[in-house]
Amino acid sequence: MAIGYHVLTGIVMILVISGELVPGKGTCQGDIQGLMRECAVYVQRPGPKVNPSAACCKVVKRSDIHCACGRITASVQKMIDMDKVVHVTAFCGKPLAHGTKCGSYVVP
C-alpha cells in the first residue's frame, strides 16, 4: 500500500507541477522528475517533518517553486503536507514568502 501511495503522490505532483491538472496554465521550470524522486518523501502525508536531503535541496534550488504553488489543487493538498513544503523550501534556501498562496494554503 505504501509503495502505491508513493507512486500516486508522485504522478499527481508531476501532473500538477507540469500544468496538466490545471487547464490553461503552462508548465513550470525545473527538474520535475528530480523533484518527485528526491523530495516527495519529505512533503507527503503522513509522517514527521524532517530536513530534506542535499539532493532534494539541489533540485528545489533549480525549480520554480512559486509556479508549482500555483498548480496545487485541493486533491493534491490531501496528499501533501503544506507545512512540510514550506519547511523543505526554507531549509533548501528558497523560502516561500509569508502570504504566498499554494493551492488554497497561505504561507503563515
TrEMBL record:
Signal peptide residues on this chain, from the entry's feature table: 1-19
Family matches, as Gene3D superfamilies: Plant lipid-transfer and hydrophobic proteins
Entry keyword set: Signal
Keyword Zinc-finger in record: no
Organism from which the protein derives: Brassica oleracea var. oleracea
Keyword Signal (UniProt): yes
Name of the protein in question: Bifunctional inhibitor/plant lipid transfer protein/seed storage helical domain-containing protein
Domain of life: Eukaryota
PANTHER family assigned to the protein according to its UniProt record, in alphabetical order: BIFUNCTIONAL INHIBITOR/LIPID-TRANSFER PROTEIN/SEED STORAGE 2S ALBUMIN SUPERFAMILY PROTEIN, BIFUNCTIONAL INHIBITOR_LIPID-TRANSFER PROTEIN_SEED STORAGE 2S ALBUMIN SUPERFAMILY PROTEIN
InterPro entries: Bifun_inhib/LTP/seed_sf, Bifunc_inhib/LTP/seed_store, NsLTP-like
Stretches assigned to the Bifunctional inhibitor/plant lipid transfer protein/seed storage helical domain: 25-102
